[in-house]
Amino acid sequence: MRVKGGVNTKKKKLRYLKAAKGYRGALSRRYRLAKQYYIRSGVYAYAGRKVRKRDFRKLWITRINAGARIAGTKYNDLIHGLKIAGVNINRKMLADLAVNDFGTFKEYCEIAKSALNGN
Question: Mind telling me which InterPro entries this protein's record contains (predicted)?
Fold first, then answer.
């Protein structure tokens, strides 16, 4: 007596179709297309996780630059001055300070300015 794999095949197909729920048109109903686009969606998700990091860094730099200009300096001078002064603070924290605690951010700007002028 031979073993037939119908149950496993159906289970496999259902897993892909369930994952493809919400895809537009035939992509959510046809197994072959659902499988292809499920794999493609994984590729997009992987790439998206990398892009998110880039996007956040761009956002932080934009916020720091806006705050730095209000404080009377430029982004480039601020970062360079902080590096010369030996202040080790990342862009995420600087951006948060620029938005939520401008007084402290301004102090960092003054530190950077004095480090640049001292050189």
Answer: Ribosomal_bL20, RIBOSOMAL_L20_CS, Ribosomal_protein_bL20_C
* Stretch among 5-9, 18-22, 46-50, 115-119 having the lowest mean pLDDT: 115-119
List the CATH number of the domain containing 52: 1.10.1900.20
Picking from 73, 116, 68, 113, the residue whose alpha carbon sits closest to that of residue 91 is 68
pLDDT per residue over 27-53, tens digit each? 999 999 999 999 999 999 999 999 999
Domain membership of residue 81 as a residue range = 5-118
**Long-range CB contacts for residues 97-104, cutoff 8 Å, separation at least 24:** 97/67, 98/63, 98/64, 98/66, 98/67, 98/68, 99/63, 99/67, 102/67, 102/70
* Other Cβ atoms closer than 10 A to 86: 8
Q: Please give the tally of structural domains in the chain.
A: 1
